[in-house]
Amino acid sequence: MQRPAVLGFLLACAASLCSSTVITKDGRPIGWDQTVETLTDLPSKDGTVTPNPWHFPDRMSLYRVLIAATDPFMASMGSNTTDSPVWGLPVMLAWEYVSGRLMDPTGTTTCGQESDKSCISPQSWWACESYHTSVLPFLSAAQQGVFGADVQVKMQKPASGEDYCTTYADCATRFPDAMTKWDTFYKDLRATSESDQPDNVKKDTILGLYWTARMSATSACSASQSKYSSEEVALFTAWIDGAEYYAACHHHTNLATAVNLTSPMPSRVLRTGDVAPNIEGLTPEENHTVSILNWMKGINTLFFGAPVRLWKSAMCSVSTREQGRNMMNELVLSPTFPKATFTSMVTELLATC
To answer: Given 3-state DSSP classes, what are the helix, strand and coil percentages for the chain, each rounded to the nearest 5?
Structure first.
């Protein structure tokens, strides 16, 4: 996301209270009540854990098990059980689910439709991206002993036969950079949490490790973009660019913050001819989100990426990143927080670097 653009987006959300897509139930991401709580509750065969990541409850369960296993090292995040930054991932999956973005975009199967709602389509771009931020970190966690010693995991393949990696060795061979960064996250998580550093430094370090792993993009899903309208492609490319802002300030994507950021995203897949702010069937908040994301992408392109580079430059220390996180939260939560104030604060932060 580009500086002014992202900020405008978040400010607009705050001003409108971002009251759009319902992505939670009883305070947890949609689908949480269908998940299992422990690793031993997942499917298994011959001593190997065999989740089906193409079944929505199983993929959501990967997050629940992972959050539970890493929570003992997240004390610096806060006192709530929902303060882990990993909560941002199941919240995004819940939005993809309720907005129809996990269904087959070609329409040649019923996967993801109401008659087969728990099915996640391997044809979906969003589902493919989610695969690499659910399966890869889960396999890495198992490899690094997060779930205990000698835990063997092999993911089930999609019934339609698409070629997704299913084991740690397979994924590490195909995506060595991503798997190395997730390995580093888990290796350093325990050491950081047990160090004598102040909690704010621990928090910043852990969030930095998390975002480094989270942003380890792969190109494996690119081919799926051709199955969508140019409007939907523009939405998810702008969304990906926007994550650069959050990564730079080591944003704390706990449950509450993740829900605030995700709720105003469009509640259905965009079609050809969907032009914000007048997209039929979307709320004013959702229309505004699409408008701002598109504008944001355009501004960053126009200025050759300068806005995000300035923001990254300003996020140069534990202190400035902490202020950056607070500024982003202010934009989301405070309807009266002025954009001009944000700009001046970024300038002040840059002066300290």
So the answer is: 60, 5, 40
Tokens in use for 316?
A: 């140069």
The encoded tokens of residue 341 equal 């104030």
Given its phi and psi angles, is residue 112 left (phi above 0), alpha (psi -120 to 50 degrees) or beta?
left
Question: What does the DSSP 8-state code read for residue 153?
Answer: B
Per-residue pLDDT reduced to its tens digit, 115-154: 999 999 999 999 999 999 999 999 999 999 999 999 999 9
Q: Are 224 and 125 within 8 A, CB to CB?
A: yes
3-class DSSP state for residue 78? Answer: coil
Q: What is the mean pLDDT of residues 85-111?
A: 97
Q: Under DSSP, is residue 44 helix (H, G, I), strand (E, B) or coil?
A: strand
Question: Which residue matches tokens 């069937």?
Answer: 281
For residue 331, what pLDDT band results from cuts at 50, 70 and 90? low
Q: Phi and psi (nearest 5°) for 50? A: -130, 70
Confidence of residue 295 (pLDDT cuts 50, 70, 90): confident
Tens of pLDDT along 246-285? 999 999 999 999 998 899 899 999 999 999 999 999 998 8
The tally of CA atoms less than 13 A away on the side-chain side of residue 300 is: 27
Which string of b and e fits 301-323 if b means at least 16 CB within 10 Å? eeeeeebbebbeebbeebebbbb
Total length of the chain: 353
Omega of the bond leading into 277 within 30 degrees of 0 (cis): yes
- What is the Cα gyration radius of the chain? 20
Distances (CA, A) of 175 to 62, 158, 308: 19, 19, 26
Cα 61 from Cα 156, distance rounded (Å) = 14
pLDDT value, residue 13 = 44
For Cα atoms 82, 84, 88, give the angle at the middle one, nearest 5 degrees. 90
Rounded Cα distance between 177 and 174, Å, is 9
**Residue 27 backbone class (left: φ over 0; alpha: ψ -120 to 50; beta: rest):** left
